[in-house]
Amino acid sequence: MNQASERELEQWQRAWQADPGRIGPAVAELEQRLARGRRQLVLVIALEVVMVVAGMAGVVIAMRRHADAPTLVWALAVVVLLALASAFAAWNRRGLLRPGGETCREHLALARARCARSMRSVRFGRWLLLVEVMFLVPWGCWEFVLKRAEITTHPWPYAVRWGLTLVAVIGVLTWARRTAARAQREHDALARLGEQLAE
Amino acid sequence: MTAGAERHDEQRYMLLITAFAPALSRLAASYASRASDQEDLFQEICLALWTALPGFRGACSERTFVYRIAHNRALTCCARRRPATCGLDAAQHAVDARPGPEQQVERSQAHEQLLGAIRSLGVGMRQVITLSLEGLTHAEIGAVLGLRENVVAVRLHRARAELRQRLAEDRS
Predict the structure, then answer these.
(1) How many CB atoms lie within 10 A of CB B92?
(2) Which of A102, A182, B35, B169 is deepest in the core (most CB within 10 A)?
(3) Would you tell me the crossing angle of helices B62-80 and B138-145 to the nearest 10 degrees?
């Protein structure tokens, strides 16, 4: 490095370090943020467990109340779909805890893998929803044919059930659209950063 | 973790953050353009440092360890936010309290100009130039970013040329 070049670097260093920066947060503050993050994680896992438990409880209650053919088929479908969703959730999370190494490239690779998994979970969610709808529509018709008298005399429990199903479908579709858009945006940004790092 | 180990990590963290907070804050400013994003990123980096500290066994220098964590976290945070916040719009900066008012304005202007030019560089070049401005050698920069020394030298050479050009364009 020649003298002019050294002087230039020193001048830049002085200008750069003229910003005194910030004071670092205390440990107590960081611990609060960590605890908040842990609580959110526990909440997500608890929500998944609650959904599985509620699904299974629903199956047991329905089987005790009406031990007929449509309820049996519905119960079987719920058990299979819940098992499928739980297995997918566990499989889709594997290997995402730590990067393969300490470099920026490996951290970016992990972040991209997380985005890809997030997009995969959205794709799975949409397929699962499609399967559920394809099951529920003929099943609903079958149930209506078998229980026409009961449904016409007491329509409200059935209306509430189908209404809740519709709300759940809309909720899943909204979640899928938002999650996919966010993951895609992040994935693209990570790809651009990766390209810049490779320059 | 035992209470003794926790106290030891707390002491280590306080020592590191006291020594490196100004540099980490400047690094955050090179990645995020809005003041609120810079603050968020700075907090994220400190949090990453605190969580990684118990696993640090001295395989590299503390300086390498701190900057490595900072750059890795900054990259992933940058992607998580909207890319526009990693761009070039005007940022707010703290001013140096030590020099007189005129010097202060002059220094602040020079810093802002430099920061703006640095932010306009690609991420790879931005990383090497900011580490170089913090006084790291080529070998240290290589250790932080996981690059060979000759790659650092080439990238730094290109980054400096580009930075010089951007600053000249700003002045004219």
Answers:
(1) 12
(2) A102
(3) 50
Q: What angle do CA B105, B136, B163 make, to 5 degrees?
A: 55
Contact B133 A13 (CB under 8 A): yes
pLDDT of residue B82: 58
Q: How far out from the chain centre does Cα A42 lie?
A: 14
Contact flag B164-A101 (C-beta cutoff 8 Å): no
Residue-level pLDDT at B95: 34
Between A156-198 and A104-146, two packed helices, what is the crossing angle to 10 degrees? Answer: 160
Rounded Cα distance, A35 and B112, in Å = 36
- Indicate the pLDDT class of residue B90, thresholds 50, 70 and 90: very low
Chain A nearest CA to B153, separation (Å): 11
Residue B132 tokens read as: 């170089």
pTM: 0.78
Rounded to whole angstroms, the Cα distance separating A155 from A38 reads 44
Instruction: State whether residue B58 is helix, strand or coil.
Output: coil
At CB < 8 A and 24+ separation, what contacts does A96-105 make?
Answer: A99/B72, A101/B146, A102/B68, A102/B72, A102/B146, A103/B145, A103/B146, A104/A197, A104/B71, A104/B72, A104/B75, A104/B127, A104/B145, A104/B146, A105/A194, A105/A197, A105/B146
The reply to whether residue A17 touches residue B133, judged by beta carbons under 8 angstroms, is yes
Residues of B in contact with A20 (CB under 8 A): 22, 94, 96-97
Burial class for B94, CB neighbours closer than 10 Å (0-12, 13-18, 19+): middle
CB B121 within 8 A of CB B88: no
